[in-house]
């Protein structure tokens, strides 16, 4: 980029001119997202036109079919990527289609599919969602709706739109697209959080909290974008990266460092909030606890993948040239996240809050790989996210089955779980497996994931971070193991919980978790090999692609 | 080499057996026991057959198999054994069926009538063989950590007493902490050494040869702390008495007899050979800790009122001898230490089993609950005495040979520590004989009249161990022949030489002979 004479002219130069020619977009490359989007729109129409009695079945079929076909399209696109290239961009460079993005999208789709099974679970006409969200909790009106068997099938289009946002988030190739994706992803989630059938006030509080804090963090993100635009004169990652690598702003004749640094920090805040890293983690326990558990599962798996995907893309491509500037910041955040969350988690007495804090700790582990800023780090983070996603959905699926009594709410109190291993050995065994995977015991996917991220961090010279990581793993192991002790080694509690039969949908979700946890733990090679281009596949045009598999 | 994948079979057989037992319905607990015993005996036969195919003095690692497992991390499924590993695998294969036999009725009152316990034993056996057979550092780590889980359930679910939950958690967290520190070192080995294959890492040409001093010391420490927790070495031993005291005696046999050996084995195989210079630098601290372990373990053993805890503390003392022998850096010391691992497994295993028989009769492990047992159950008392005398290294019994070798190997280079260690021998006589005196001798109280002697099953469980203790006490040569080549190679790696033969011959076999003739 040539040195500009004045900020104004540079801005004019950088502005895309799209008015003259009709947009030429390769829709095939966007097909996975378009399918989900179209399904979401159709689902809204279904709400209007399909009779109430058949709505749930229709919506579920549509949603599952949409996610499945989007996944197939994603896989097809991986196959059609040109040999020896990381990928390409589409829609004026605003969306990247590369191996990393496609892997993340595929992961999100599969995880969303499994979560959807949980969301769709329906026992004797009773789902996890409020009969009528607009009715005041505890009112006559609410009771009327419950008795009438009303259901919110709007949940399905909302989930589809959220998934659309998640798909777009990690493949956005400019800051504005990314911001839109962020909002598309978040808004339906805010709503879904408030729809719990039981403990509705908790649920609504969670939704409001999530919304307010989320809006706040979006503002940070947007302000950061503005500053970065001020520095680079562009929102496209490739142009930002070019400006960063040139070592100075084209708008300020090579200066403007502070603008960039503050911009990086604010964009980082927005993304780290979605990831749930300390000190931006406060929403997680409340929201995870208050939201309907199937939605918690969706957020804990898919949202995390999407948010980390976006974080990785922004920091590896747009800010890839200033690694030294952001690395100390992420170091600090990673250490805080791993230490604080692990310590606080020890004191938790509620299973969902505990899993929420555990999710924060795991975000810290993934951050150690982000800090590495290397292809290994990228691959490690992606593997970790995929492995963690399946395990965490499985864990939340188990939570949905353990109730205080036959028709009661979920038994969140850990003390009530005592002796579960004796009364329901299969269910408790599955949860024990998930917990051991969280703890990173070998022969589970959690161990391979941990190894991958720590290996990347250490290879990048972040040994202290790895030491903090393993120590915090030891702390986390304490509370995971404590649950196993409760379930298997304690006598059943007086107020023994009632375990619902798993049913086809929830059962499949748990089974998917078990299978993924074991298979990824014992035979991770097929997945790992897809994550990073093999040495022979190294691309030859450094101008378009960074060395770590992203396309700008 | 042979084409039979001995080691893979020896790992797969108990693993599949364990799976099969776990899948049996709850009502078929009797069948589960039989399947378990059959499987463990089959493993023993398999391992014994493998041992006959082993060539002492041949290649260092035999029966090697290498298959890529996770190529992205350079991880292979690589197994192979040297003499030491082979002996430890043999020892495990001998101990497991005996434990199954001894535990036959132990869990009949559990809600699954012990089916789960037997499945766990089989899974654990697979992992024990795997951990000794692994020649890939990553694979070793996988077994090292994964074997905690079955033991954790064996203590927490099937253990004894109200403290078993706490004991199981303490055991797991201690081990996990050590294991996680080791994980850092394992990653470090890969980052600096470029591979996980042990044989490519060690030696002057190995991947770790060019490591700078500081890094090597840190990596050494990462491994060493994990092994010291496992071994266990003072001051990281506190989990062992709790765990052993809350275990079924059968669990304690496997825990102390086999699992803890992974620690000392790891020191010998990984700490010393991968980081020889760092190991040499750490000799004094380790020797001091070993001495503290020897004396401290023995003193605390004397003060115990619970027999399981007592035996656990004697093991802390014995593991002090083993580490002392390893870090004396002489071939006698290391041969003695390697031999000690095997002998200790048999002797302590026998002691734990006998204590288990006592518990089965009176439901208590407290010394105060027994008196004059000899009069009611002479065979039991006799077995107890022989096992105990093995524990205090009486000449003619196998632990003596190894302890003697450790002393020779240590005295020639570290005379003062050797003298201090001798205190442990004196104390050993005290704790064993005093326990024997209090429980077995004296008048038989009225309420003990119904005390029965060993049943046929129990004789079969402990008899083979007594036989082995006596046999290897008189004729340890085959074991030493298997150990010697591995130790020699370690010495070369360490660049250490034995001191001038003040004892008339530094030749290993000569010392071994001397050991039993004196």
Question: Largest interface, and how many residues on either side?
Answer: A-B, 37 and 33 residues
Helix content of chain B: over 70%
Oligomer: heterodimer
What composes the largest sheet of chain B? 2 strands, antiparallel
- For the largest beta sheet of chain A, what order do the strands appear in spatially? 1-2
How would you describe this structure to a colleague?
The complex is a heterodimer of chains A (552) and B (518). Chain A has 552 residues and is mostly helical. Chain A has one domain (26-537). Helices cover 69% and strands 2% of the residues of chain A. In chain A, the strands form two sheets. Chain A has a two-stranded antiparallel sheet. In chain A, strands 3-4 form a two-stranded antiparallel sheet. In chain A, helix 12 (293-318) packs antiparallel against helix 15, helix 14 (351-372) runs parallel beside helix 18 and helix 14 runs antiparallel to helix 19 (463-489). The longest helix of chain A has 33 residues, at 200-232. Chain A is globular. Mean pLDDT of chain A is 85; it is low at 1-15 and 533-547. With 518 residues, chain B is mainly alpha-helical. Chain B has a domain at 283-518. Helix content of chain B is 71%, strand content 3%. Chain B is built from 22 helices and two strands. Chain B has helices at 6-23, 29-53, 83-102, 115-133, 137-146, 148-156, 164-193, 198-201, 213-230, 239-245, 249-274, 276-281, 283-302, 307-327, 331-362, 373-376, 378-391, 398-411, 415-440, 456-474, 477-494, 508-517, and strands spanning 62-70, 75-81. In chain B, strands 1-2 form a two-stranded antiparallel ribbon. In chain B, helix 3 (83-102) runs antiparallel to helix 20, helix 14 (307-327) runs antiparallel to helix 15 and helix 21 (477-494) packs across helix 22 (508-517). Chain B is globular. Chain B starts with 5 loop residues before the first helix and ends with a helix.
């Amino acid at each position: 980029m040539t040195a500009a004479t004045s900020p104004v002219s540079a801005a004019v130069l950088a502005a895309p001119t799209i008015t003259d020619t009709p947009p030429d977009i390769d829709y095939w490359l966007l097909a996975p997202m378009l399918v989900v989007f179209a399904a979401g729109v159709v689902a809204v129409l279904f709400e209007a036109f399909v009779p109430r009695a058949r709505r749930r079945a229709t919506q579920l079929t549509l949603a599952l079919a949409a996610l499945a076909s989007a996944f197939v399209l994603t896989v097809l696109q991986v196959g059609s990527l040109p040999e020896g290239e990381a990928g390409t961009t589409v829609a004026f460079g605003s969306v990247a289609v590369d191996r990393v993005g496609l892997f993340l999208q595929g992961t999100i789709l599969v995880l969303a599919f499994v979560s959807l099974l949980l969301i769709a679970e329906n026992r004797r006409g009773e789902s996890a969602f409020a009969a009528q969200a607009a009715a005041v909790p505890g009112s006559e009106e609410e009771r009327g709706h419950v008795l009438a068997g009303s259901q919110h099938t709007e949940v399905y289009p909302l989930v589809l739109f959220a998934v659309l946002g998640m798909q777009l988030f990690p493949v956005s190739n400019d800051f504005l697209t990314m911001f839109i994706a962020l909002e598309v992803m978040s808004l339906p989630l805010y709503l879904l959080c408030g729809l719990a059938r039981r403990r509705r006030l908790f649920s609504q509080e969670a939704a409001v909290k999530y919304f307010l804090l989320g809006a706040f963090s979006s503002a940070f993100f947007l302000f950061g974008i503005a500053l970065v635009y001020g520095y680079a004169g562009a929102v496209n990652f490739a142009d930002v990266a070019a400006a960063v690598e040139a070592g100075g702003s084209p708008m300020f004749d090579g200066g403007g460092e502070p603008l960039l640094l503050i911009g990086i920090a604010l964009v980082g805040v927005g993304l780290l909030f979605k990831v749930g890293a300390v000190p931006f983690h406060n929403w997680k326990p409340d929201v995870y606890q208050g939201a309907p558990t199937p939605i918690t599962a969706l957020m804990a798996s898919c949202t995390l993948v999407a948010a980390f995907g976006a974080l990785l893309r922004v920091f590896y491509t747009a800010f890839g040239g200033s690694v030294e500037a952001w690395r100390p910041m992420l170091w600090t955040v990673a250490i805080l996240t791993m230490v604080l969350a692990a310590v606080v988690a020890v004191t938790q007495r509620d299973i969902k809050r505990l899993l929420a804090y555990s999710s924060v700790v795991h975000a810290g582990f993934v951050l150690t790989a982000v800090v590495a800023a290397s292809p290994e780090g990228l691959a490690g983070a992606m593997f970790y996210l995929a492995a963690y996603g399946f395990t965490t959905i499985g864990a939340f699926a188990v939570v949905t089955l353990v109730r205080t009594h036959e028709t009661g709410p979920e038994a969140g109190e850990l003390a009530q779980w005592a002796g579960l291993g004796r009364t329901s050995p299969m269910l408790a065994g599955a949860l024990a497996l998930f917990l051991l995977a969280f703890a990173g015991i070998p022969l589970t996917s959690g161990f391979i994931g941990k190894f991958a991220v720590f290996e990347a961090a250490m290879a990048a010279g972040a040994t202290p971070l790895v030491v903090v990581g393993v120590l915090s793993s030891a702390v986390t192991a304490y509370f995971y193991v404590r649950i196993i002790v409760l379930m298997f080694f304690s006598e059943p509690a007086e107020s023994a919980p009632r375990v619902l039969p798993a049913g086809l949908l929830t059962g499949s979700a748990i089974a998917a978790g078990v299978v993924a946890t074991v298979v990824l733990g014992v035979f991770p090679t097929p997945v790992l090999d897809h994550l990073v281009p093999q040495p022979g596949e190294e691309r030859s045009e450094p101008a378009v692609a960074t060395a770590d598999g992203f396309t700008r | 080499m042979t084409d039979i994948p001995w080691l893979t079979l020896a790992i797969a057989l108990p693993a599949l057996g364990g799976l099969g037992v776990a899948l049996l319905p709850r009502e078929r607990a009797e069948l589960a026991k039989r399947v378990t015993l059959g499987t463990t005996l089959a493993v023993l036969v398999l391992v014994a057959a493998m041992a006959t195919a082993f060539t002492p003095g041949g290649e260092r690692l035999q029966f090697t198999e290498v298959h890529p497992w996770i190529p992205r991390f350079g991880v292979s499924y690589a197994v192979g054994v040297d003499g030491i590993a082979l002996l430890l695998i043999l020892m495990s294969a001998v101990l497991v069926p005996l434990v199954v036999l001894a535990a036959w009725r132990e869990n009949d009152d559990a809600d699954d009538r012990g089916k789960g316990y037997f499945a766990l034993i089989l899974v654990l056996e697979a992992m024990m063989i795997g951990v000794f057979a692994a020649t890939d550092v990553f694979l070793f780590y996988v077994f090292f950590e994964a074997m905690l889980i079955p033991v954790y359930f064996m203590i927490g679910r099937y253990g004894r007493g109200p403290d078993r939950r706490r004991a199981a958690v303490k055991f797991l967290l201690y081990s996990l902490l050590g294991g996680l520190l080791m994980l850092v070192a394992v990653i470090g080995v890969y980052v600096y050494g470029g591979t996980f294959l042990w044989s490519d890492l060690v030696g002057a040409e190995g991947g770790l040869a060019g490591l700078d001093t500081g890094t090597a010391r840190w990596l050494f420490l990462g491994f060493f702390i994990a092994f010291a927790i496992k071994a266990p070495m003072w001051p990281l031993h506190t989990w062992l008495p709790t765990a052993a005291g809350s275990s079924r005696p059968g669990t304690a046999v496997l825990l102390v007899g086999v699992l803890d050996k992974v620690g000392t084995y790891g020191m010998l195989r990984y700490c010393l050979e991968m980081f020889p210079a760092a190991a040499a630098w750490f000799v004094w601290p380790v020797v001091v800790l070993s001495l503290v372990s020897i004396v401290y373990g023995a003193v605390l053993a004397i003060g115990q009122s619970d027999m399981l805890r007592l035996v656990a503390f004697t093991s802390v003392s014995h593991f002090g001898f083993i580490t002392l022998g390893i870090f004396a850096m002489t071939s006698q010391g290391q041969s003695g230490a390697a031999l000690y691992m095997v002998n200790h497994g048999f002797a302590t295993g026998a002691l734990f089993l006998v204590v288990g028989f006592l518990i089965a009769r009176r439901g208590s492990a407290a010394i105060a609950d027994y008196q004059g047992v000899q009069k009611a159950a002479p065979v039991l008392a006799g077995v107890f005495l022989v096992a105990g005398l093995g524990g205090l290294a009486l000449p003619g019994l196998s632990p003596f040979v190894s302890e003697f070798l450790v002393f020779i190997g240590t005295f020639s280079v570290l005379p003062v520590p050797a003298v201090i260690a001798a205190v442990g021998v004196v104390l050993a006589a005290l704790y064993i004989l005093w326990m024997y005196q209090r429980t077995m001798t004296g008048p038989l109280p009225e309420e003990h009249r119904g005390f029965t002697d060993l049943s046929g099953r129990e004789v079969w469980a402990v008899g083979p161990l007594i036989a082995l203790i006596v046999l290897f006490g008189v004729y340890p040569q085959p074991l030493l022949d298997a150990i010697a080549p591995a130790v020699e190679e370690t010495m070369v790696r360490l660049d250490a030489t034995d001191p001038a033969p003040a004892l008339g011959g530094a030749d290993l076999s000569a010392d071994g002979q001397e050991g039993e003739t004196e």
